[in-house]
User: Fold Coenzyme A biosynthesis bifunctional protein CoaBC from Nocardioides mesophilus.
Amino acid sequence: MSQGTAASRVVLGVSGGIAAYKACELLRRFTESGHDVTVVPTAAALEFVGAPTWSALSGKPVSASAWESVHEVPHVRIGQSADLVVVAPATADLLARAAHGLADDLLTNTLLTARCPVVFAPAMHTEMWEHPATQENVATLRRRGAVVIEPAEGRLTGADTGKGRLPDPLEIFEVAREVLARSAVHGRRGEPTDLAGRHVVVSAGGTREYLDPVRFLGNRSSGLQGYALARAAVARGAEVTLVAANVSLPDPAGVKVVRVETTAELRDAVVGAAAGADAVVMAAAPADYRPLETSTSKMKKAEDGSAPVVRLRQNPDILAELSRERPRPGCVIVGFAAETGDAEGTVLEHARAKLARKGCDLLVVNDVSGGKVFGEADNEAVVLDREGGAHDVPRGSKSALAHVIWDRVAARFETG
Assistant:
């Protein structure tokens, strides 16, 4: 956990779905990170995972009833004292009861008394998730400031497959960590959903341009910063599409992931996803050039020791295209610049020239001299804007930088 979020008081609500067993892993993530966790299951959840399991993992007694230990007023106290409430899984029934303010068990009472950020991780069959009633309940909860994570796609109960699967517990934990970190900065409620109702597109990773079926031209981008941006946006309430180029990281919870390899594929996926988007953040590192010819078979090493000549052609400039042909009026375009200084200018001089050339609204500048930043957990940057401003972001987590970027995007939404 980031500084300022250790030992937070977390309520883990568990509703009655088969995915309840996965919440055990989420509980372990919280407790091993030093949090004080109170598990509040529904009566139906206890049919899937019994109270002794929750008690053993949390180190606390567990009950679904508001009638136990009445002298401690648990139906009010638990919610009032929480720093974060996470409901995982959140069934269609639980979402409906929460949206309508029902208080017929300990968990729904807790949700009504909580004055902290609330995160719901839905899990149900596809038809239930897509039903207009569920979608309306989700919209209501989001409008009130809750973070409702989009469910994952995959295998459901039995032979069914579709959208409605509980996201990976580790990724739910990452969203919760983002929300907690934000509340540590902005106060107990955390202002978690300033991107609610916004659709944002983030690109991540590095493209590959194939010379033959085995070899390619590529770069060192790991995708870590793009994934941090996607997670941060989910924690702030956005609908997020992540276009990932050759990234071997788990899908962030609540994010639609589109996987690509080449710069042409990246361009098509980003432009397609950006139609109607409120913001596009190009954190990916697309190759500037691709081979003029690609061999359909593996190129063999020459017997005489000679090296092949590789002729290149320039790839499309995705950032410049997006900046020039905005997906919609008011769409905020953010670029990244991995720069090194040279005889012709400093890192910032090169970056300012790139900002003017590309025409984007914000440019996040990394000094990558000596291979800094790539693959590292931390980052430092300067965020330039088209009005001439510059904001220094000191070395810290890539998540922290992601929130600085979204702060500046959100500010542009407000000034419109």
